[in-house]
Amino acid sequence: MASTRVARLDRAFFARPVRRVARELLGCTVRHGDTAGVIVETEAYHESEPACHAFIGMTAHNEVLFGRPGIAYIYRSYGIHALLNAVTDGDGVGAAVLIRALQPVDGIELMRLRRGPVADSEVCNGPGKLTQALAIGLELHGTDLVSGPIAIESRAGAAPRVVTSPRIGITKAPELPWRYSIADSRFVSRPRPVAAGLSRTS
């Protein structure tokens, strides 16, 4: 399935509360080079809670979190995977949305070359998998999602049904229901979300 290119998200989209941005990114498309995928899962992180990198205050690496919304915050997880986040809120507020999973739509064969022989549903069903598939590395940390090499394009269709559930893969504030997934998508990461609520985005 090939995607239809639409307008990139503007700065104003990202300059809003992180949980709202996390929900409304679902159905949007991440594009880098010849590869792209529709966002099917996100997580919100805010400086007010200890799982967020901004919770400890500003450092040399996380200062991007406190800056202009719409910037890519990319960090290495467990010394292996680069994880892509979109900075949100406003200057001085540390917050970002982690892009957790994509449904591949463009450049799928190239993604498979990068990821190995895996099923379509396994190509981008995790934050480290999707950056490997789209060749997004630490060198793109701090680049502009509004005008830079990584594009996030507007949702092309109607708002999806959204499942909210607790975030995964963390030990701090795991109870917060700040994980957002497109209902019934087979491309979300494991473990599959156990719904805290089901709603339609605005």
Specify the structural class.
alpha+beta
- Mean pLDDT over the residues: 93
Give the SSE string: HHEEEEEHHEEEE
C-alpha Rg, in Å?
15 Å
The main sheet comes to: 9 strands, antiparallel
- Gap between N and C termini: 26 Å
Identify low-pLDDT runs: none
How many domains? The number is 1
CATH class descriptor name: Alpha Beta
Strand fraction equals 25-35%
Q: What count of helical segments does DSSP give?
A: 4
CATH topology: 3-methyladenine DNA Glycosylase, Chain A
- From the 3D coordinates, which CATH architecture would you assign? Roll
Oligomer kind: single chain
| Helix residue percentage | 10-25%
Assign an overall shape: globular
- The tally of beta strands, per DSSP, is 9
